Amino acid sequence: MRVAFVLKGYPRLSEAFIAQEIAALERHGLELLIVSLRRPTDDRVHPVHREIRAAIHYLPEYLWREPLRVLRAWWAVRKFPTYGKARAQWLRDLRRDPTPNRIRRFGQALVLAAELPADILRLHAHFLHTPASVTRYCATLRALPWSGSAHAKDIWTTPEWEKREKLADCEWLVTCTRANRDHLAALAPPGRVELVYHGVDLARFPANRVVRGASDGSDPRHPVLVLSVARLVEKKGVDVLLDALARLPAGLHWQLVHVGGGPLKHKMQRHARALGIAERITWRGALAQEELLLEYRKADLFALACRIARDGDRDGLPNALAEAQSQGLACVATRVSAIPELIRDGSTGVLVNEADTVAFAAALEALIRDPARRRALGDAGQARLAREFTLEANFERLAAKFPSVAEAATRHADRVLRTA
Q1: Is residue 210 part of a domain?
Q2: Are residues 162 and 91 in the same domain?
Q3: What CATH number does the domain containing 190 carry?
Q4: Total number of domains constituting the chain
Q5: Helices marked H in 78-159 — which ranges?
Q6: Which residues contact 417 (CB under 8 A, 6 or more apart)?
Q7: Looking at the domain assignment, is residue 212 inside a domain?
Q8: Are residues 377 and 400 in the same domain?
Q9: How many Å apart are CA 197 and CA 200, to the nearest integer?
């Protein structure tokens, strides 16, 4: 048996947590096929991507680019006894969401259903929006069980009707925060949704004891190094972080290193220039894990000003915060979504309210001036993370949800008989 993991794009630097999970499942003995709705856009990969053995099957990103492939798939799939059910399912969705994206999802599902290898006995969607739609339609066409992993944007920007129906159809779904679990469980049949934190893989982020300097911002030759790792999108609140840094006293010496790419890159750089702090900022762009680990180990302090975007998008539990804590970095962050599940304000980090620039600046200033406090918070955060938020502490619950080969084959045979 193999399981097809349906992803929006693969490989992606910003989704190392998915690659980490795939690699761990392969080590656990699960045979996988990676199905990607889009071709990669990053010019680099993480080391974990090179360890993954699974084959990759790319679907047509835009149907008009591969019309013959889509037509051949439809010609084959329309003969399936399940085709009428899947088509009716899609048409109901299309009436409520009459968009080109909804048409593309069904076209991709047709191609996947036509091209899916015979040894695939389960589909698993990463993200509850587009990948889960393609997975759901394909699962109906092929009479296969499907499951899913839900994360952040996919939860908070998907309409409630769509979440309810997907949760009713899937066999099970895991999500990476308690806040997500509570929200989705209220829309799902009992027992359908389970909490499984991603967890940091300490083999890749070993808890190295970093001896940091005692910089307190008073010496211009030894500024306090603040690190932020975040995609340059609205929900990451990079503009809030910049505004907070601009509020710090002129005589306080600090430098910011920002890691991450995204559509707001030039806007944020212009904003930093307008605030008069551009010369204190290094924009590193997206980095592979081995490069990122070095940045964590060079930094004195980690900052992330997440917020809820105007379209409702928000983070779940940012992996960068957990990675920073794995390296003993004190963290300043916001009380958004599941961040308080990881960081206990005042004991393992410092939390302020969303978009509160004044409070964020005050928290940064206090920690910049107090290296002993930074060390205490970093040590406490590192210790709690090692107990509760590692890959090892959470992975077995996910692995146990994938059935054995014999069980999966029996379930598949039963489904085929019921739909024949």
Answers
A1: no
A2: yes
A3: 3.40.50.2000
A4: 2
A5: 83-96, 100-115, 130-142, 153-156
A6: none
A7: no
A8: no
A9: 9
Q: Would you say residue 209 lies in a domain?
A: no
Q: What is the pLDDT of residue 208?
A: 73
Tokens encoding 228: 């932020």
Cβ neighbours of residue 133 closer than 8 Å, sequence gap 6 or more = 93, 102, 105, 109, 162, 166
Orientation angle between helical segments 83-96 and 130-142, nearest 10 degrees: 150
What is the token pair recorded at 223? 């500024």
Query: Could you tell me if residue 48 is left (phi over 0), alpha (psi between -120 and 50 degrees) or otherwise beta?
Result: alpha
| Structure-derived torsion over alpha carbons of residues 138, 192, 316, 130, reported in degrees to the nearest 10 | 10
Residues 135 and 239 in one domain: no
Same domain, 337 and 411: no
What does the pLDDT average to over 304-323? 93
Contact between residue 16 and residue 46 where contact means Cβ atoms under 8 Å apart? yes
pLDDT score recorded for residue 411 = 55
Residue 324 shares a structural domain with residue 193: no
Over 70: is that where the pLDDT of 62 sits? yes
Write out the residue range of the structural domain in which residue 56 sits. 2-199+392-419
176: in domain: yes
Task: Let me know whether 165 and 281 are in one domain.
Answer: no
Cα–Cα distance, 19 to 326 (Å, whole number): 19
Q: Give yes or no: residues 167 and 234 share one domain.
A: no
Using one digit for the tens of pLDDT, what is the confidence trace for 245-290? 999 999 999 999 999 999 999 999 999 999 999 999 999 999 988 9
pLDDT in tens, 2-37: 999 999 999 998 888 899 999 999 998 999 999 999
Tokens of 142: 């092929």
Does residue 205 contact residue 323 with C-beta atoms inside 8 Å?
yes
Higher-confidence residue of 104 and 198: namely 104
Query: How does DSSP classify residue 347?
Result: T
Report in angstroms the alpha-carbon separations of 420 from 117, 320, 416, 417.
Answer: 20, 48, 6, 5
To 5 degrees, how large is the angle CA 272–CA 278–CA 282?
110
| Residues 363, 281 share a domain | yes
pLDDT bracket for residue 198 (50, 70, 90): confident
User: Across the strands, what pairs with 283?
Assistant: 258
What are φ and ψ of residue 218, in 5° steps? -90, -15
Question: Is a pLDDT exceeding 80 seen at residue 209?
Answer: no
Residue 122 is inside which H or E element, if any? strand 120-126
Q: What is the DSSP letter of 97?
A: S
